[in-house]
Amino acid sequence: MKKPAIFLLFFVGIFFSPIQVAPRTAYAQTDIDAALASGTIRAFLRVLARPELSGLIDFYIAEDADAAQITADLQPVTTFAVQQSGWVDAGQTFQATVVIRPENRRATIQTAKFDGRWRITQVQMLATEPATRTAATPEPTVAHRGGQLVFQTESGGEIYLINADGTNLRHITHGIDPQLSPDGRQIAFTRWEPYYRLYTTNTDGSGETLRADGREMIKSPTWSADGTHIIFSYRTFFDAGKHVKFNLYELTAPPVIPPNARGLKFYPDGTVEYTIPPDSHWGIAQVDLSTGQIQDFNIGSPYGYAPVAHPTDARRLVYRSDKGLAAFSLQSQTSHPITFDNRDRGALSISPDGNRIAFSFWQDSHWEIYTVNMDGSGRQRLTETPLRVIMQKNRSEVVRNAEGYLTLRPVQGDAAVSNWNNVAPAWSPDGSRIAFMTDRTGRWEIWVMNADGSNQQPMFPNGAVNGLKFNVGGNDERMLSWR
């Protein structure tokens, strides 16, 4: 391997994390060294996850360290996550605690500087996190018996399975947008590290199987009604956007400003400025589980997000376009609109009888959950922040200002205007209830309500998922699937 190629990979690996440019004080240099040391550990683990880069392993390990033992302890590596990192001593040895997958193995990795370059000096394997996590003798929640729920803690985070009555919580794997198969025996999900891939696994965590790759940013896998195919979305094109600036008096023809221009400004000297934001095109495809063949769908638009297969008709699916929700016929390869509001978003969930769609709606400043009939009629809002809650968060008092006039001043310590977020609905197997994510208590939790929006309450009041931290980014994540 030529040295320029090695050094290129090294610097690509360590400079993914931004470094603040500052005067070269001792403190600033320590910050830079911490970033370089952390980047070295991450780059080393990425090399271990890529068999074709095995020739670079020795480049990252200190000469007096046992390279063979370090590699043997850490392998195999599919993906990894850094739990915490910091200095073991003042600017000399940097240590990170990492979770290595598969099997959620934990290790501490130390690195030190040799001849101006950071190298791995020591690896210590720690106690493995249990693959199964159970709450302390949880009592079933009688009101919510029926089926099982698979959920992710965040997009790309850990995936768990739990009975809908709050019993038998177990860790399955990690990934993006999990969905249970129609028979409830398998889970489909995707990963973006180290490659964009679609997988399935059994609900006991065994039998993980690669189903599709070769597409960018694979997301939102959904099983066909007969369980023979998995449909997914993927990025087909990316435009990084640009800044446009010109002078009206220098043009020979009227300017054409695109409709997606942002930050449009006009100046007295005739200068015009605006920005074209980044733009991604997304397509929808399906993989035949028996042959592995991938078929791309012609949805008639460059924007196909968050597909969900119809639960009773293997020839139909619903997805989010840039104009609202739309239905697609796999037989005729044609789409038709269901709603006409681009604030209608995923994750989408179709009722078990195939008649209604539950979805997230961007309500100006927060997320709410709605349902609608398959033909676009019967739109119904299910969640809403009570006015009393908003008022409590925005109490003011009457005071006299410096000019002597009476004015309103927010009570110190009160939060700003804040509505609850309610997002990522999932129908129960019998169609009577909808599970969803909400942050109404100040943190993200799994709640449940009747299909008409009534009787909203925590889904697991027995504390079965206490200790798990959830995060919802609002990017059409399928946080929940209920079968």
Give an overview in words.
With 483 residues, this protein is mostly beta strands. It has 3 domains: 3-125, Nuclear Transport Factor 2, Chain: A (Roll); 142-239 and 278-385 and 420-482, TolB, C-terminal domain (Neuraminidase, 6 Propeller), CATH 2.120.10; 242-276, no CATH class. It is built from 5 helices and 33 strands. The chain has helices at 3-14, 26-48, 57-60, 67-74, 387-392; strands at residues 79-87, 93-101, 105-114, 117-125, 148-152, 158-163, 170-174, 176-180, 186-191, 197-202, 209-213, 216-223, 229-239, 242-247, 262-266, 271-276, 279-288, 294-296, 305-309, 316-320, 325-329, 334-337, 344-350, 356-362, 367-373, 380-381, 396-400, 406-410, 422-427, 433-438, 445-450, 457-458, 480-482. The strands form 9 sheets. It has a 4-stranded antiparallel β-sheet, covered by helices on one side. The chain has a 4-stranded antiparallel β-sheet with strand order 7-6-5-33, with no helix packed on it. A hairpin with a 5-residue loop joins strand 23 and strand 24 (356-362). Helix 1 (3-14) packs across helix 2. It is globular, with a radius of gyration of 26 Å. The two termini are 51 Å apart.
Topology at a glance:
Elements: H1 3-14, H2 26-48, H3 57-60, H4 67-74, E1 79-87, E2 93-101, E3 105-114, E4 117-125, E5 148-152, E6 158-163, E7 170-174, E8 176-180, E9 186-191, E10 197-202, E11 209-213, E12 216-223, E13 229-239, E14 242-247, E15 262-266, E16 271-276, E17 279-288, E18 294-296, E19 305-309, E20 316-320, E21 325-329, E22 334-337, E23 344-350, E24 356-362, E25 367-373, E26 380-381, H5 387-392, E27 396-400, E28 406-410, E29 422-427, E30 433-438, E31 445-450, E32 457-458, E33 480-482
Antiparallel strand pairs: 1-2, 2-3, 3-4, 5-6, 5-33, 6-7, 8-9, 9-10, 10-11, 12-13, 13-17, 14-16, 15-16, 17-18, 19-20, 20-21, 21-22, 23-24, 24-25, 25-26, 27-28, 29-30, 30-31, 31-32
Helix pairs in contact: 1-2
